[in-house]
Specification:
Elements lengths: L4 H7 L38 E4 L9 H14 L6 H8 L4 H12 L11 H10 L7 H7 L4 E4 L4 H10 L10 E2 L12 H10 L6 E5 L2 H9 L3 E5 L6 H7 L2 E3 L5 H8 L3
Parallel strand pairs: 1-2, 1-4, 2-3, 4-5, 5-6
Helix pairs in contact: 9-10
Length: 261
């Protein structure tokens, strides 16, 4: 948090009403779709031919910005949440799931409660967003078709990839909250991403940074690499079913090791 306090001070030097990233879309029952959270054992004998990336925290380093702003906003609303609690409750979740969490602590809020804070989030993403260190080099080196599966709105994904110059690596193969009415931990976004690549999920590798995302990819039948260099702890990623790595510079070699499994 200390690294981002100067950012807050720079943009809002004396504000008592800081401007909130909205995160809203409930995981709802659909009997004709794979159930949320149930692990499907990936096909061990099938070679990996495609790779699907989460966006926030895997491709773009947005979560480190947003959790600090979340902490400030929640404090303005009367909730003194730690960064660890915010990470546990919100990272990897849909907007609707996050809204439920917020109101479980603060109680019912007015429908426009986010409006005073919107500019703070938007300025952070516009002015300070960077790619996760090492990820662009990894994308260049990995010679597999790629897609994105995220709980963020599609417009946010497009803006984030454009800001960080990562758009060309995905050829429009993006799945966001607009395309998936259940959201992770349900597997739908990963199933759709595999369709966009043109492969069965068992031939795709997923790269995630949250337990929620790991569960979603596993439920889709994918093998999962968990990026332990973000906000979620390596232990939580392991417990969710991922093989954990800590630096994007290691990703190409790890992907290579999966190609003939």
């Amino acid at each position: 948090m200390a690294l981002l306090l100067p950012w807050l001070a720079r943009h809002f030097p004396s504000s008592n009403t800081l401007p909130a990233a909205t995160r809203i879309n409930r995981c709802c029952p659909h009997e004709d779709r794979p159930p949320c959270g149930r692990h499907v054992q990936p096909g061990k004998g099938e070679a990996i031919k495609g790779i699907v990336f989460d966006c926030d925290g895997v491709l773009v380093d947005s979560e480190r910005l947003l959790v600090v702003i979340d902490q400030y906003v929640f404090a303005q609303l009367g909730w003194e949440a730690s960064i660890e609690e915010i990470t546990r409750r919100f990272v990897g979740k849909t907007e609707a799931q996050c809204e439920i969490e917020i109101q479980s602590v603060l109680g019912p809020l007015p429908g426009d409660w986010r409006e005073p804070y919107t500019d703070l989030y938007e300025r952070a993403l516009r002015e300070d967003l960077t790619a996760v260190p090492g990820v662009e080099a990894a994308l260049r080196e990995i010679a597999l078709p790629k897609a994105v599966a995220s709980n963020s709105p599609r417009a946010t994904i497009l803006r984030s990839l454009s800001t960080t110059a990562l758009t060309p690596y995905f050829h429009g193969r993006l799945v966001g909250a607009d395309d998936d009415d259940r959201g992770k931990p349900c597997p739908d976004s990963y199933l759709r991403a595999a369709e966009l690549i043109g492969l069965p999920p068992s031939e795709c590798l997923a790269v995630e940074d949250s337990p929620t995302g790991v569960v979603a990819a596993r439920a889709a039948g994918m093998r999962v690499l968990g990026f332990g260099g973000g906000l979620s702890t390596p232990q939580t990623l392991l417990a969710a079913g991922a093989d954990v790595f800590h630096s994007m510079s290691d990703l190409p070699a790890l992907v290579e090791s999966y190609l003939d499994q």
